[in-house]
Amino acid sequence: MLHFSPAKTASVLLTLLIGLWLAAPNLMPANWVKAMPSWLPHKTLTLGLDLQGGSYFLLEIDKNAVIKEQVASLRSQARQILNDNKIRSQAALQGRGILVTLPNPADTEKAVQLLQVLGNPADGNLFGTGNRTATITSSTPGQVSVALTDEGLRDRMTRIVQRSVEIVGNRVNQTGVVEPIIQRQGEDRIVVQLPGLDDPDRFKNLLGQTAKLEFRLVDLSMPVDQAMRTRPPVGSTVLPSSDGGQNYLIEDQVMVAGDELTDAQASFDQNTREPVVSFRFNTNGARQFGRVTTENVNKPFAIVLDGKVLSAPVIREPITGGSGQISGNFTTQQAQDLALLLRSGALPAPMTVIQEQTVGPGLGQAAIRAGEMAALVGSILVIGFMIASYGLFGIIASVAVALNVGMIFGILSLLGATLTLPGIAGIVLTVGIAVDSNVLIYERIREEVRAGRTVLMSLDAGFARALATILDSNITTFIAAAVLYFVGTGAVKGFAVTLGIGIITTVFTAFTVTRLLVSWWYRGVKPRSIPI
Fold it and tell me: Which segments cross the bilayer (predicted)?
């Protein structure tokens, strides 16, 4: 067990060298790292929210808004299907569904069959799997009930949350925040952690906006004041302006949707020099926009964002180039944020910020100092105990543990991991686990010495017989770390990552590096007894 061939020795030393080489940039000033040649490692650990400060947001999808939108969609589709098949009907909202009333009860059975398509799974595949989104039943002639299913609603929420995570990620990444953490939590929530963030109010506004952009025509059939006193015409709605200055009577039909945009950038109007947002449509959007502006010259065209009118300019001439601009008395920052929202895409459902936490840089520095102090004191106590208990072999174990910690930092840097307080706790725990492995080896060596074996046989047997115990204990701990990683979230995952990596490096250093150092000592000293 103590014999190391030149090739084996070289492989162990090369592994150690690579690990320490990857960890080295963490000990250098940032300007040194930037000045190093490109072939040298540049990756360093990113400090988490609890260490460098920043903001934490917990967002919640508006489930009621999702249900309301789906029910409205069911109502519209049901009307269209029955009208296409020349079946007269009326559809009224009924809880989480609609009630279709048929003047001719003889049409009931046919209507039920035609409306079955409304329940088809949205994500069904070639094998027909997937949950039905709605049930279509009739218990009374002349009436058909269409109700959303719980399974279909859960599938819908899953897709909405997944899409929302992508869009929130796009919004955050375009602002330049380094190493944001954006992940799903539960059925309808999203966690957003932004390390180093210094303007939480701006991000709260960015994250909370749906950014649903629509181009609609202004309804000129009735003054807006009269529509507010009485009721708007069918197919139109009174909407406020974004600045709260006035109201507009806007047609419900969306002429062009924001989904057709391919780009949006903040710029300045060439005539007024005011901040505006310039946009560009895709081919389909450009065609629709050109048709609408051609057919409605000299009519106002409203630009609506999340139910509020940004502006309602009069169409002076057809706009067929597929581009335009949005004005609305913006500041430069507001124009930049609006352009960012439009580029990122609209959220599939409204979200609200239900929890917000801000960690200042000072608190983060205090956490770093506390973590460093805990790691330093713990390491000193452990090293002191090992030297007091095992003498020279305690020093060898301490060297192996130091190399172990260096390799952990190297692997974390290679993976681009984020270091948090729980991560530091995982590293400190790893030091204890690494020392425990060395204690097992040394106690086995002591047993062999007491049994009267020679120095070489005691060393060899100690390492050989402790291997199985070391592997068993570390494998069970690794399984626990894996469970924490896959089941836990946030800080728990950070702890699990450092603990899991530490277990792997511990097995390597405790059994291989320690054994190599002991082998060198034995060959160089040729001892007649073991100082342990």
Answer: 373-392, 463-488, 494-518
